Amino acid sequence: MNKKLIFSLSATLLLLTACDYNDKYFDGLEGSNTPTDVKKLEYTLTAADYAAISSNKSNEKIAEAAGIKDQLTALKTNCYFTDELTAAIYAPAFLSETWYTADNGSSVKLTYDKAVNVPEYISKVTSADAYELKKSDYAVAWDDQEVYFFSPSKPAETYLPRILKSAVGDASSGDYVTVTYTYSSVDPSTGEGESYNKVVDAVEGPSGEYKVKGHVAATYQRGFLLSDGNASILVYSNKLPNLNIGDEVAVSGITSTYSGLQQFGNSIEVTQLAVGTELPSVTYEALDAAAMDAYVAAPVAKPIKYTGTLSVSGNYSNVIIEGATIAQGSLSYVMPGLIDPALNGKKITVYGYGIGASSGKFVNTMVTKVVAADAATVHSSVVEAALGTPGDYTVQGAVVATYARGFLLSDGTASILVYKNSEFAVGDIVTVSGTTSLYAGLKQFQTATFEKIADGTVNYPTPRALSGGDMDDYLSAPFLQYVTYTGTLSISGNYYNVEVEGAGVSQGSLSYPVAGMVDQELNGKKVIVTGYAIGATSGKFVNTMVTSVVEATAAKVSALMASTRAAASEETRYAMYTFNGSNWVIAEDMAIVNPADYSKMGISTNYFSSTYKPENYLSQFMGLTYPYAQEGDVKAAVYFYDEEGAVGVKEYIFSNGTWIVDDYKETVTDQFVLSNGKWNFDPSTVIELLPTKNEMTLLYMQTATDWVWTNIDVKVLGLEDKKENKGKGYMTSYENNEYYSGCSAYYGNVDMRVAKAREQYPAGYEGLDDDGVLRLMEKHLIEVMEGVLEILNADAAPVEGVDVLYTVKVGIYTGTNVSTCTHQMVYKVVEKGKFEYVEDSFQPLS
């Protein structure tokens, strides 16, 4: 992030003054009326100012002629100028409208932001075309049916590439388009069964669009493995799944190859079709060292087990296989609670699914269980206890929620209630041994012993939203899952019930909430409940182990709940696509703010504005969108800024646990001058070296003295060949003043006393009368100041179409007291860091 402040002069060295130029260098002043409103201002552009510059009609004509109309439009959202869209060209119209009463001679030092080294895609995104789907476009998904939305069975990602290819013509590689479409979480009642690909089609076929269904075979922190009994495929959603082993799901999206296998990794839509009620039967193939080496060369998604020594380093958990030539086990994004930290450095047996090979040696494994190799008995996965026959089990996992009478244990395979008081906190890694039994339609431990083995942290998946109808259905088919629902809270003693609108007989029941979890002031109010559904009782209660209960504002309800029964489930969504030269594909590493996101932010419009500034919300938005970001990750947030649909984009870097915006801006200050009724960019600068010992005067005078020492050859006592004597004839022994030009850091002025000059170095002025000495020192001063400017203003550069002038004002002392600047000289910047004296500009000041 560049936050460097750049001035026409180095800000650390120079004090810029508001002194006027000599009339010779101010066109339009001579012969004019005496100005009455000559303004000398310093001003910093605001977001509203950038918007005004962007929409100025004169600027629109200039930008259109220059072929950068898109950059001008983007100015209102980006709030920065560029190398093409310069303040020099587009700020004058704003200055004219803002200070319309100013007279010639007025000047404004304008501070603004300029983009530096902006990635090419940023400007392309801000100038992206917008496409809103027409009703006819949805026919690609629904043929001749009158359905005008996408849905779980017909996800947008499957059809938008084809729609855009037809609708957006003349696309070039790297172009972007924002897409607006309608989505419904409910499939229409078409009377036809769904059509699916076989999983093997997606595994063995070319990368492309597929729709498959099957059961969840395993999970990890960034997705899950889907199997239909014949083949398995990784679904890399890059987020924590709200699924358990055995759940039936449908997946649609675009496949690609990673780690030697096809996987769903782009444009994924996951629909849970049914909750798992039976424990899947799995036979793990045992891989020895040779088989592990062979797997690296030819990976297959399949259940495997292997034994080796666990090596944990930071977020990496590898398994060293004795006898293997190249292969190591790599435990991918393991769910909290699956690995006992005490096993680090010990021999273990890993149960799970091979999901590919990477870096030429790692057998990537989605783990279902890890046990000590020498364990007398192998403990069970939570899913075995949750879906297996009631009986005795020993399980290990993380505490994901608590209530006053127990806790919920999860290892990623499933979750199970432990109905026994404990002092565990959310995140603790524990082992539980006991007997399971059926209660409220689900297995739970009612008698158990347990032990904490490590601290830990827990992240929650996106909760499943339950409507009133879903709550009613839950009573006959309970499941344990992270859910959310909205209704009116009723507190009566120790009972906390929630009446959900649209429910027939069901109610939410907040089971034994821990102290402080539910604010008593919420009694009688509409609330949003989030937590784990843990069973159904009394034919009406959906028991919930809550993780949060908050008041339901209109915006929160709108964002959270959509009916899963009717047209009310339809919502507007946005997407960002880019053209890769042949097809439109989802823009990677970009998150676009959707209408539901604005609602969650409490913004009633589907765009940001000067009231709701994007920078106040986007960091949190990125955190929610990328919950498992790693240090140094770079992503972009795309958003709409105003009702006209201006597209904004900001790039974010994940650093020290926070998303930090990288706006590629430098803050620049440039001068604009009003001449002949027009504002013009004029980076010319006045340097006023007051005859005092102020910091700037002393700097310039000492630099001049040093310049004379370095650059002026003189003869001193016949030692002209001695390098150390260069300039010494003009410089006093104090080395802070010289009588070549008279610059004195000691006095803080230009000392042109003829007698002192002759006294210091008679040979330098031999044969000249007093006036001749003075004229020669003036000539030398012009020479010396040119050298000083090149040292202290090395960044000064010419500007096309503008004479960049540096006016230096000094106080010359000839024997009469001097307290102000008495003379000036003007230099023109001819190339970067190079100055040229303007002829006849050395003049006394009136």
How would you characterize the overall build of this protein?
This protein is of the alpha+beta class and 846 residues long. The relative contact order is 0.10. The chain has seven domains: 112 residues, no CATH class; 86 residues, Beta Barrel (OB fold (Dihydrolipoamide Acetyltransferase, E2P)); 88 residues, Nucleic acid-binding proteins (OB fold (Dihydrolipoamide Acetyltransferase, E2P)), CATH 2.40.50; 73 residues, OB fold (Dihydrolipoamide Acetyltransferase, E2P) (Beta Barrel); 102 residues, Nucleic acid-binding proteins (OB fold (Dihydrolipoamide Acetyltransferase, E2P)); 75 residues, no CATH class; 160 residues, no CATH class. α1 packs antiparallel against α3, α2 packs across α3 and α16 crosses α18. Helix content is 19%, strand content 35%. It contains 18 helices and 43 strands. The strands form nine sheets. Strands 1, 2, 3, 34 and 35 form a five-stranded mixed sheet that branches. Strands 6-7-8-10-9 form a five-stranded mixed barrel. Strands 12-13-14-16-15 form a five-stranded mixed beta barrel. β17 and β18 form a beta hairpin.
